[in-house]
Amino acid sequence: MMNLTFSDKIYKCLVAKVLKFNEQNDSKISIDQLIRIYKRGEKAADTMWQPQKTTAQSAMARVNMFLDLSAGRKVKGDYRFHDIDVVEGTDKTHQQESADPFWNFTNLDFTSARTDLLLAQIPDSDGEKVFYPPTVEEN
Fold first, then answer.
1. 68 with 75: CB under 8 angstroms?
2. What pLDDT, in 10s, does the model give residues 111-139?
3. Mean pLDDT, residues 64-82
4. Which of the four, 11, 60, 107, 137, has the lowest number of CB atoms within 10 Å?
5. pLDDT tens digits along 22-55
6. Cβ–Cβ < 8 Å for 67, 23
7. pLDDT greater at residue 36 or residue 98
């Protein structure tokens, strides 16, 4: 079996989330949107430390909340402000923006995020690694 890096595993997990979401919802999302949200979650985790929660858990919890927002499901009112720009389709990339410090996740949000990471074969010990998304060359 191929030994995937942390970034490869995160990327594959995000791609799977995009495919599943687009199959189950009328609204569509892109991998670029999920990368932006994941990276925002990483950056916000740097400023808003949570005891016994990894950076990857915070980033994945934010991804999951974004998926709820994009599907039109109920999300925390204070979250909607932070990532609605991505739902509405701004032109920025994750390299062009700073993080909004949203971090108000419940224990269930973190548990769901941790489950996603474990299913992607990312142990807690890797949870502080930084995700480096692949670069896409433009034609």
1. yes
2. 999 999 999 999 999 999 999 998 755 44
3. 85
4. 137
5. 999 998 999 999 999 999 899 888 777 777 889 9
6. no
7. 36
Check if the beta carbon of residue 138 is closer than 8 Å to that of residue 15: no
Q: What interhelical angle do 31-47 and 55-71 show, nearest 10?
A: 130
- Distance between first and last Cα of the chain: 33
Contact 100, 41 (CB under 8 A): no
Using CA atoms, how far apart are residues 92 and 136, in angstroms rounded to an integer? 15
Q: Which residues lie closer than 8 Å to 94 by C-beta, 6 or more apart?
A: 35, 36, 38, 39, 40, 133
Task: Indicate the burial class of 53 (C-beta count within 10 angstroms; 0-12, 13-18, 19 or more).
Answer: buried
Q: How is residue 91 written in tokens?
A: 């032109």
Output phi, psi for 5, to 5 deg. Answer: -80, 170
User: Residues 6 or more apart from 66 whose CB is under 8 A from it?
Assistant: 33, 34, 37, 83, 86, 87
Output the six-digit token pair for 74.
Answer: 């109920």
> Cα–Cα distance between 28 and 11 in angstroms, integer?
18
Instruction: Look up tokens 């990276």; give the residue.
Output: 39
Whether the CB-CB separation of 29 and 67 falls below 8 Å is answered with yes
